[in-house]
UniProtKB/TrEMBL annotation:
It comes from Chitinophaga rupis. This is Ribosomal protein S18 acetylase RimI. The keyword Transferase applies. Gene3D superfamilies: 3.40.630.30. Keywords: Acyltransferase, Ribonucleoprotein, Ribosomal protein, Transferase. PANTHER family: AMINOALKYLPHOSPHONATE N-ACETYLTRANSFERASE-RELATED, AMINOALKYLPHOSPHONATE N-ACETYLTRANSFERASE-RELATED-RELATED. One of its GO terms (cellular component) is ribosome. PROSITE patterns: GNAT.
Length: 146
């Protein structure tokens, strides 16, 4: 297995994973929309996407978005999307993708990586905790739909 950063030429292949990820979160399938979204993120350098692959087969991906912490006065990252095909879960793919995210954060002198997951996604929670993420018991997060 290798981990590498996605390029614009990978947009169509990543979109298949990304669409499956969105379906997992109860969104309607939209492969053309997924491809356009991924291509825009890569083209505009608005996210960093790492791919796990074995030969020509993509096993999973992670997508991170940059932001800054005013209090910490440093860059930070949101690990927004992590998805591994079901048949490759519990084989180290997710951990390898998180390791790539950590390496990105370190190489950009980031203060932290933040993520969120659904409260019933216990498998993801276990992976995140095994890889050093800590559940936030201090802050509340609010959302405003616009």
């Amino acid at each position: 297995m290798t981990i590498r950063e996605a390029t614009l030429q990978d947009a169509a292949a990543v979109a298949v994973l990304f669409d499956a990820y969105r379906i997992h979160y109860e969104q309607a399938p939209d492969l053309p929309g997924a491809e356009a979204f991924i291509a825009d993120r890569i083209r505009n350098r608005e996210s960093v996407i790492y791919l796990a692959e074995e030969g020509e087969e993509l096993l999973g991906f992670v997508q991170l978005y940059p932001l800054f912490t005013s209090v910490g006065m440093q860059r930070a990252w949101v690990l927004n999307d992590l998805y591994v095909w079901e048949q490759y879960r519990n084989t180290g793919v997710g951990r390898a993708l998180i390791d790539a995210a950590k390496a990105l954060a370190q190489s950009t002198n980031a203060k932290w990586i933040m993520l969120q997951t659904h409260n019933d996604n216990v498998n993801a929670q276990a992976l995140y905790e095994k890889t050093g993420f800590e559940k936030d018991d201090i802050y509340y997060y609010y959302y405003l739909s616009v």
